[in-house]
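Postdoc handover notes: sequence design on the structure in folder B. Input tokens:
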């Protein structure tokens, strides 16, 4: 996001958004303005699809967010079922910086837009978003997008980052960049993409990915073997970097066999400096909190599923920890603590947050959240 340095250039026209490959300075194109646009802030977006079947993707994305833009279609009733769930996830992750964008404003008249604006205000009044600005926009027509930049700059504070701790990244994508038929000598290692939560990564740094490869031993017990490699490249969109710091989405090129990274196979894992990552758990005990009602389900006297029942032993839930989505069987419930056996092992910290979802009417619905208190560890096997 750029800002014109001419004090007479009015808001919001003084703000402009471009791709990250733009020059750090260029002339303002407003008629009569002699100012220059200067780089003010560099941001990345995690797209969280609104459809209910993508709720796990939304919860995974929430793990790396500093703020949220809630996009609501002006030609639909508000709130939609998925809007409830997204806002509940924002509350769980305790995001304070929220902007609401009333999109497709070009498809409705003024009266209908104003009616929906009142619906939005009523919907958010008891949530973290109660003071969020509501900005009418048309993304297709590029209408009011400068106002969005204005509010991002003025309403969303730059987060305080930790540059001194050992580096750590939550992987939210991984892929193989090699095209079919590539010569063996030209093959490139796998790519891991995500958000750095702490520390600084550098080219040629040795790294470790946990849990790594997951397999069963001769007794049928799950085991894991962390993957070790070296950073060969760092990317922020189209820009190559010598080092990468917290904030934004970063692509890390490695020497890992690309078959291990293709098709998001590393999503849910954690990447960091060798020997510095957290422990790996296959069972967790968490302090949990249930929502009062199922978000995204119509609440009326005929729908018994709208009310959230207590957790019961042996039921299977969907657990989101960091960027990992996995099944979890409830082993024991005692007061506000629940012990869960995970389908996949997770590399996590004590007190890390998790989201709980339950299968209701054929869909996974967010029912609560928790914080990890302790767990049963897996001792890593021979490193790869």
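Designed sequence:
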């Amino acid at each position: 996001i750029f800002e014109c340095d001419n004090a007479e250039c009015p808001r919001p026209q003084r703000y402009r958004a471009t791709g990250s490959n733009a020059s750090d300075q260029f002339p303002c194109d407003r008629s009569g303005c002699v100012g220059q646009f200067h780089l003010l802030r560099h941001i990345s977006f995690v797209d969280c699809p609104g459809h209910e079947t993508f709720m796990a993707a939304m919860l995974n994305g929430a793990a790396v967010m500093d703020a949220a833009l809630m996009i609501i279609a002006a030609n639909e009733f508000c709130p939609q079922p998925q809007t409830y769930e997204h806002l509940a996830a924002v509350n769980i992750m305790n995001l304070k910086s929220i902007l609401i964008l009333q999109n497709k404003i070009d498809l409705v008249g003024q009266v209908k837009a104003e009616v929906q604006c009142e619906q939005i205000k009523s919907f958010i009044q008891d949530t973290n978003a109660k003071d969020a600005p509501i900005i009418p926009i048309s993304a297709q027509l590029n209408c009011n997008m400068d106002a969005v930049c204005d509010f991002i700059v003025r309403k969303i504070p730059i987060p305080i980052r930790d540059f001194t701790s050992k580096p750590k990244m939550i992987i939210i994508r991984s892929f193989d960049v090699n095209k079919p038929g590539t010569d063996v000598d030209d093959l490139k290692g796998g790519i891991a993409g995500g958000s750095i939560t702490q520390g600084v990564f550098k080219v040629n740094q040795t790294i470790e990915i946990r849990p790594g490869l997951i397999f069963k031993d001769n007794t049928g017990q799950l085991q894991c073997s962390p993957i070790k490699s070296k950073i060969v490249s760092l990317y922020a969109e189209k820009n190559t970097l010598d080092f990468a710091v917290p904030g934004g989405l970063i692509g890390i090129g490695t020497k890992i066999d690309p078959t291990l990274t293709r098709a998001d196979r590393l999503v849910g894992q954690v990447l960091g400096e060798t020997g510095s990552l957290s422990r790996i758990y296959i069972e967790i005990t968490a302090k949990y909190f249930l929502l009062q009602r199922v978000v995204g389900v119509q609440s009326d006297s005929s729908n018994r599923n709208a009310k959230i029942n207590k957790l019961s032993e042996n039921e299977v839930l969907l657990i989101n920890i960091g960027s990992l989505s996995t099944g979890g069987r409830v082993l024991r419930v005692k007061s506000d603590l629940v012990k869960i056996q995970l389908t996949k092992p997770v590399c996590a910290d004590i007190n890390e947050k998790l989201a709980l979802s339950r299968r209701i009417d054929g869909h996974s619905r967010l029912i609560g959240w928790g914080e990890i208190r302790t767990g049963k560890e897996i001792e890593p096997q021979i490193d790869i």
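Context for whoever picks this up: The chain has three domains: 41-155, 168-273, 280-377. Don't rerun without checking with the PI first.
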